[in-house]
Every structure is written in structure tokens, then in C-alpha cells.
Amino acid sequence: MLHIFILFALFFSSTSHASVQDFCVADLKGPDSPAGFFCKAPANVTVDDFVFTGLKLAGNTSNIISAAVSPAFVAQFPGVNGLGLSIARLDLAPAGVIPLHTHPGASEILLVVHGKITVGFISSANSVYVKTLKRGEVFVFPQGLLHFQVNAAGYKATAFASFNSPNPGLQITDFALFANNLTSALVEKTTFLDHAQVKKLKAILGGTG
């Protein structure tokens, strides 16, 4: 038995460093794919590849939704490539809203650090789960489900969202319906909205058709 143990110890000590790749910093000059970006050559990797400073400042909330999302996904933060995680900052002015949207590639966990935010998601069975969060409280959004965040107070709110993917993806329902060239007739037919409302929303969000 002792001989077997020694043989295993020798085997693992001789192979433990043979095939380990500690990281795969994204080479953003190359193509993206479902498997991620190609890795930068280790000789070209620096400590700055593992640092992202873009979440220090609040995003610009002077827009139609009175809110801003500042992502630290792989495209902004190459060091998260292949690690199965990323983060973003959410800033919501009074009355700010992150509209119904999905992340096809990741689940999300949200931590409120300032203000109050009403959050929720809709399950595939059309059950609704809504809660108003205060500072220090956390909420989880399962992967691929429609969800939202709304400022629930009369002052600014800030939160940080973490994802279990370096590239969680994003599709905002309103933009998917009204910010493209899908014909108004088809939008009306598939949403049961009237013609005037569809035309109004297309005009606001930049859609045509």
C-alpha cells in the first residue's frame, strides 16, 4: 500500500504543472465566439489586464430611461475572459428604470449599495417575483428570464450586478420590438398593440417599418 501511495505522489508531483493554464486574457483584436476570445500571449500580459477602473464613477443618467449601466464584461475587461464571471454598475436617477430585458448567457446577482431599487423577474410560467431592495440587500435573477430594476426612492440609487459569464449578453424587450425594422403590422399582430401606439414607440426608440 505504501508503494502505491508513493507512486501516486510521484505521478501528481511530476504532472501538476504540466497542463495548467492559469488565465486566458482576451486578445480583443481577434474574433469573439461562444467559446470566448483567443488568449493573449503570456509574454504580452501585464497586471493592468486584471484591473478595471471603469466602475468608480457614476454613469450618465441623462437619457430616456434616467439610468446607466457601466459593464465590465470581457469587451471592457479582457482579464475575465474564460473565468466565468463579470460585473457591472447600475446608476438610477430618480424615476430611473432598467427596462425589461434578458441576459441569455448568464444568471445575475444584484447588490444595492445606495438608495432603494424595486427589482423583479418573470418566470417561464409567467409567475412574477418582485421585491424592493435597500442598501446591502441582494437579489438573484435566473439566466434568460425577463427582469427589471426601478428606482424606488426620490433620490439616486446605485447597485452592482455580478454575472456568471464574462459575456452575459443583453436583449432589451422594448428595443427588440420597437428599435428595428420589423414592420408595424407584424408588431401590432404579435403584441396586440394598436397602430398609433406602435408608431409612437418606433418614433421614440428609432425603429422603422
TrEMBL record:
SUPFAM superfamilies found in the cross-reference section: RmlC-like cupins (SSF51182)
InterPro entries according to UniProt: Cupin_1, Germin, Germin_Mn-BS, RmlC-like_jellyroll, RmlC_Cupin_sf
SMART domains: Cupin_1
Keywords of this entry: Apoplast, Disulfide bond, Glycoprotein, Manganese, Metal-binding, Receptor, Secreted, Signal
Record GO cellular component, one term: apoplast
UniProt-annotated binding residues for Mn(2+): 101, 103, 108, 147
Source organism per UniProt: Quillaja saponaria (Soap bark tree)
Record has Manganese as a keyword: yes
Positions bound to oxalate: 103, 108
Span of domain Cupin type-1: 53-199
Protein name, as recorded: Germin-like protein
CDD domains per record: cupin_OxOx
Cystines in this chain: 24-39
PANTHER family, per the entry: GERMIN-LIKE PROTEIN SUBFAMILY 3 MEMBER 3
Pfam family, one: Cupin_1
Signal peptide (UniProt feature, chain positions): 1-18
